[in-house]
Amino acid sequence: MSTPATFDSHNPATGELFATYRNTSADEVNEAVAKAHLAGQLWGASSFAARKSLLLQWAKLLTKNIDEMAALICSETGKPTSDAILEITLAIEHVAWAAKHAEQVLGTQRRPSGLLMLNMKSRVERSPYGVVGVIGPWNYPIFTPMGSIGYALAAGNAVVFKPSEYTPGIGQWLADSFAEISHIPNLFICIPGLADTGRALTQSAVGKIAFTGSTATAKKVAAAAAERMTPTVLECGGKDAVIVADDANISRAAEFALWSAMSNAGQTCIGAERVYVVESVADRFLDEISAMARNIRASSDGNYGPATMPSQIGVIRSHVLDAQSHGATFLVGGPESVGDRFVQPIIMTNVAENSTAMTEETFGPTLAINRVANISEAIAKANASRYGLGASVWSRRNGNKIASQLQCGMVSVNSVIAFAAVASVPFGGVKDSGNGRIHGPEGLMEFTYPRTVVSESFRIPIAFTTFKRTKFVDKFIRKAIELLH
Ligand code: NDP
Q1: How do residues 313-331 score in pLDDT, each as one tens digit?
Q2: Contacts by 112-115 with C-beta closer than 8 Å and gap 24+?
Q3: Does residue 198 sit in helix, strand or coil?
Q4: Which residues of 54-73 are buried (b: 16+ CB within 10 A; e: fewer)?
Q5: What separation in Å is there between the alpha carbon of 381 and the centre of ligand 1?
Q6: Which domains does the chain have, with CATH numbers?
Q7: SS3 3
Q8: Are 313 and 338 in contact (CB under 8 A)?
Q9: Quick check: 2 pLDDT over 80?
């Protein structure tokens, strides 16, 4: 099958054609990576101060153009303007944090050489990979890829970015805005395209791949990257659980869990999909969240918009029907809430733990709420998932204690999703939710590799690393280690 030269993007609320984009071919991907390598050499050799200055200038430019970016995101994803603006502001915060902290995190560190190597000086430098290939999803088309783009640039790499085929416009806009202020051409290149463009990037000469998207695609990305031993950071899907203890503020837990599950039409990797509520407070929680959910509407000007990716509608419907066939009770909405483009809120309870609504990522405005006898059962059920991205815990007294027992990368206590907005902490998951981290110091380090440099500071008459090593030296080493240990 020949590769199409262009592809169309549509407004998901109306289905109308929004724009047509070039479908970047494999040859063009390789050309882009080669150009980015040259740019990366200049950028990597520049000072932390110079990089900080350019990235802060970019943060300023993005801030000036929030409305233009928000309009583009709304047209491509169908999300409400206020959600688009929130996403953009968080992305800008991350760029600025990475710019300001890169030197402190990535600067050369001295390390002690130890008694046996007393005459050596040891240091660890962090070196950028050169070019980082970033592959992004459509659900938060600026916030999610920026967690890689901003940090990779701050760490001294060039970036070649393949946005989702549903949101190429905002990807191109980001690269164009950076080019406006960058004195180094091709430092951040956008390569719009379909899945083959992403595949070509994973097979290209990039130094690292930063992927955000589904677990199924992440496995393909990791396999392709392994052919060249290209390292990857993989940010994938989730099935995030909310745990509500008997000492929780029930009204707030219900309000925040509802938003976490339904906002952005449920298309949030770290959004609530399952709730485990302790029996003694379950009735109150279910009543409160159901009452609030009845006031939430999906529409072009509602609380949230359409499913951005048309094929997701089929996934949502199948999970809801599977829950129904396994005996779930619908408190708000039901299978009929799944429309052609919009999905109205669905709250279910008594959902079988082995139904797809509990085991697979639904990525829609649905919430499965099950009762548990106690917190131990809640923790065990939350951990029984093949995913391990984020979680939320509601308890006045034991939030941190519960959080520490969860098998996932991030937990909000008496809050939801808060960790995504804190630039100084790492973001990422375990199990099928991926590996590696973006954001925070870990996110900066992810886009560099350590180079160890050990050099002689003064000469001693005892040499280990030579064929001239004497019996005396052997004895000395033996004695020294016996004394030390
Ligand atoms: P996909 O996995 O479908 O696609 C992600 C990106 O990969 C797209 O740009 C896609 O291109 C590209 N791609 C597709 N096939 C290949 C391939 N063989 N090689 C390389 N790249 C390829 O995910 P979605 O876009 O549907 O995003 C939704 C998913 O992302 C959800 O599972 C969600 O949970 C997850 N996600 C995870 C986050 C996290 O940080 N952990 C944050 C946000 C979302 P194209 O669009 O052209 O198919």
Answers
A1: 999 999 999 999 999 999 9
A2: 113/454, 115/480, 115/484
A3: helix
A4: bbeebbeebeeeeeebbebb
A5: 27
A6: 6-236+437-449 (3.40.605.10), 241-422 (3.40.309.10)
A7: coil
A8: yes
A9: no
How many other C-beta atoms can be found within 10 angstroms of the C-beta atom of residue 475?
10
Is the shortest distance between the CB of 436 and ligand 1 below 6 Å?
no
Gap from CA of 213 to ligand 1 centroid (Å): 3
Q: Which candidate, 258, 261, 278, places its Cα nearest to that of 270?
A: 261
Q: In sequence order, which ranges of 155-234 are alpha helices (DSSP H)?
A: 168-181, 195-202, 215-227
Say if residues 369 and 289 touch (Cβ distance below 8 Å): yes
DSSP state of 332: E
Could you give the 3-state DSSP secondary structure of residue 388?
Answer: strand
Q: Evaluate: CB of 445 within 6 angstroms of ligand 1.
A: no
Cross-strand pairs, 411: 391
Beta strands (DSSP E) in 283-431 are 329-332, 346-349, 366-372, 387-388, 390-394, 410-413, 430-431
DSSP labels, 89-142: HHHHHHHHHHHHHHHHHHS-EEE---GGGTTEEEEEEEEE-SEEEEE--SSSTT
Is 290 a pocket residue for ligand 1 (Cβ < 6 Å)?
no
> 208-263 pLDDT, tens per residue?
999 999 999 999 999 999 999 999 999 999 999 999 999 999 999 999 999 999 99
| DSSP H or E run through 159 | strand 158-162
Q: What DSSP character marks residue 80?
A: -
Q: What share of the chain is helix, strand, coil (3-state, %, to 5)?
A: 45, 20, 35
Amino acid type, 328: A
pLDDT, tens digit (0-9, with 9 covering 90-100), for 71-112: 999 999 999 999 999 999 999 999 999 999 999 999 999 999
